[in-house]
Design brief:
This protein has 208 residues and is an alpha+beta fold. The chain folds into 2 domains: 105 residues, Trna Endonuclease, Chain: A, domain 1, CATH 3.40.1350.10; 92 residues. The chain contains 7 helices and 6 strands. Strands 1-4-5-6 form a 4-stranded mixed β-sheet. Helix 1 packs across helix 4 and helix 2 packs across helix 3. The two termini are 31 Å apart. It comes from Dechloromonas denitrificans. One of its GO terms (molecular function) is nucleic acid binding.
Length: 208
């Protein structure tokens, strides 16, 4: 990713069950039209030497919505960049090009994105990099036992240890199960609190 904001959005989209594909820095190869739109909006089109380069959209998202495959575009900017007049003119070019082709375009509100949110998402996603193969029945059972042991003042490592004993599994598997359950929303973990083994876990319904 080109920025932490993009990484956060990428992980948030990854968690959606409707997601089919997520392409970062998707190039608009219709350069003749983007040159025209840049002139219209007073934007300098990117060039490499004498040759125009494609404009890129931060994300092109493909989802299954109401049994239909849909596409939409999303641009990710910091809150300050989103207010910059020059950047807004550049975004207007993206929006106009997408509108002409019937592609919904959104400037994502990143005001709630934080380093803590990114760290929490990465912590949860480790189940994937550990090559854990999820099982939905096992995940549902883990979540049930885990919530039965949950307390706001209990360290996450202790909650995982207790749940592992109840399920008669080792702690390594229990950790991967927890990360997967948090990632897939079997457990509704707060994204605004630090998620670490040596800290108490904050669930969203207990979020303050």
């Amino acid at each position: 990713m080109l920025s932490e904001y993009e990484a956060i959005y990428f992980h948030l989209m990854e968690r959606k069950s409707t997601l089919l594909d997520l392409r970062e820095q998707w190039p608009i190869l219709d350069i003749d039209r983007t040159l025209e739109l840049c002139r219209q909006f007073g934007v300098r089109h990117p060039f490499r030497g004498p040759y125009p380069e494609p404009l890129t959209i931060d994300f092109l998202i493909t989802e299954m919505v109401n049994d239909s495959v849909t596409h939409r575009a999303a641009s990710i900017k910091t809150p300050s960049d989103a207010l910059d007049p020059e950047i807004r003119r550049r975004l207007a070019v993206e929006h106009a090009w997408c509108s002409e082709r019937g592609i919904p375009w959104t400037l994502v509100d990143t005001s709630a994105f934080t380093k803590t949110m990114l760290a929490t998402l990465r912590f949860m996603r480790t189940w994937f990099s550990n090559r854990y193969e999820p099982d939905q029945d096992r995940a549902a059972r883990f979540s049930e036992y885990f919530l039965g042991e949950y307390g706001t003042n209990i360290l996450l490592s202790e909650l995982i240890r207790k749940t592992a004993r109840l399920m008669c599994i080792n702690e390594a598997e229990a950790q991967n199960l927890f990360r997967y359950c948090a990632w897939s929303a079997h457990l509704d973990v707060s994204l605004t609190h630090q998620l670490e083994l040596d800290r108490p876990l904050v669930l969203r319904d207990a979020d303050t």
